[in-house]
Amino acid sequence: MAAVTLKSIIDEFHLEEITNFGNTEDILITVADVTRPGLQLAGYYEHFGPDRIQLLGNMEMAFLKHLTSEERFHTLETIFSKGIPCMILSRHHEIFPEMLETSKRYSVPLLRTDETTSTIMSSLIKHLNVELAPQTTLHGVLVEIYGEGILILGESGVGKSETAMEIVKRGHRLIADDLVEVRRVSDSTLLGQAPEIIRHLIEIRGLGIMDVKELYGVSSVKMQENINFVINLEIWDERKVYERLGINQETTEILGIKVPSTTIPVRPGRNLAIIAEVAAINFRQKQMGYNAAKALTDRLFGPRKNTESSGT
Amino acid sequence: MTKRTVTFNCEDSLHMKAIAVLIQKASAFRSSIWLTRGDRRANAKSLLGVMSLGIENGMQVEITAEGPDEEKALDEVAGYLTSPQF
Asked: Rounded CA gap, A64 and B9, in Å?
C-alpha cells in the first residue's frame, strides 16, 4: 500500500515540531484524509479514523479552553491514545500543558503551523492525494502538444523516441521518454512524469543518450502533465482494419481510467510527429464539440432528410 | 510467462556499459522482457528505463519474460546479470 512518512509531510509544509520523539521517519500516513476532531473532543468516537492526521483549529482550541484542566487532560488523553499519526495545530495556537504531556505519554508528535485551518487542510489533502495515488510505470513517451498531454505507447524500436524528438523540434514539450510514471490523482485524472534519474533524457538508436533540456532549452521540457490522450503505435499489419472515419472513439485503460486513444500504424515514410500533432488538435476540437467525421455524416445524410421532409 | 529473481553481480564501476550490452542482448529476442526492482518495473529493451531502476552491484532483480522465445530470453538475461561480460 502506498504510504508517506510523517517526516516528508513536516518538511513539505514546514511544520514546527513541538515534540519530536525521533519517530517521524517511521510514522506512515496511508490515507489522504485530515480530521478536525471536534466531535471526538466532545466524546463521540464512532466511525473515528485513527489513521488520519488530526488538525486542531480555532473552534477545537476554543472548546478545549472552556474545559477545566482535568477535563482537558482526559479529553486529550483519549484522542492521543487512539494511535493517531500526529496532531497539528493551525494558526500558531498556544499549546496547553496537558497537550504536551499526553503527546509525550503516547509518543505522538505535536506539530504546529502558522497557516489557517482550512488552508493547511486543503493543501494537506491535495498533497496526500497525489502522493498516495495508485501508480504504475509504463513503457512509452509523454509529450505535451498544444496543451494536451499525449502518451505514446508501442513496442521497442517502433520509433517512439524519434517521434518525441521531432515533436520537441516542432515547438512542443517533452515530459518523459522510455519510462513514464503514472499516478491516478483523481477518479478522472492521470498524471505522468519521468523518474528523476532519467528526466528529460532521450535515447536515439545510433546517437546515444541526449539531454533535451540542455539541447533545446527549458521551453522544450515540462516536469509533469495530465494524460489526456493515448497514441498506440504499432507496426503496420496488412490484415488489420484501421480506423478510417474517426467516428468511434477507442479508449485505452490505465489504472482503471479509460483514456481516449487511437492506434496508428507505422510504416517507413509516415511522419509520426505530424500525425501526433494532428491527433492532438483533433482531440481538442472534439473536446470543444466539433467532430469532423460527424460533420461529414451530417453533410452526406442531413440535407437528403431535409428535402424528403420538405417534399411531404 | 516465466520469471526468475537473480542478483546483479558487477563490481566494475562501468556498469552503465554493462546495462547497454544487456539492452542489446534483450532486444535480440521477440519476447517482451521486464526487469523489476522493488516497486519499479522497466522494459529490458529500453536503456533509459533500465537505468532508471538504479540497479547496483548485489541488488536483487526479478526478470519476467513472455513470448515465443521466453525461456531462452530468460536464461540469457539471467545469465548476463549474474556474470556480465562486456
From this structure: 60
